[in-house]
Amino acid sequence: MASASHVKHYIAYWLQLGKSLVIHSHRNVLKSPLIISGENYSAEFEAYWQQALTHARTSYLEGTSQTIEELLTPEWEVVMCARCPMPIPLKVAGISANNCPCQDLNIWPNAETLPPRAPVVSQAVLLDICENLKRNEHNYPRSAPA
pLDDT band at residue 121, thresholds of 50, 70 and 90? Predict the structure, then answer.
């Protein structure tokens, strides 16, 4: 089952590549110019996500057929695409006729650009690096004084 945070990341990644979030039966198509703000998702993206949840029955990513409501059921999970390094919905059981949302993007996959990403909490990442260095410190010989 895809958690709400997995579906949110899936939507955020594809919006960064120019896809739109269709909310409430084609009446409202949202393209967000700013997805990440510092260590979090932008306020604009968070507002889009809340709208998508409010209208989950009729909200979906452009170029796909699964609604947000469907993706939040146990029948779906979000996995990495075998063709491109992007999250895609995959039916847990049975056959899904849907392709990766990248199928209609001529610019993707593109190894020469930075890929979409989730927000990163810099302080937490740096603390993990420090902890790893401390744990591995004994594995490296100290150089003798010159």
Answer: confident
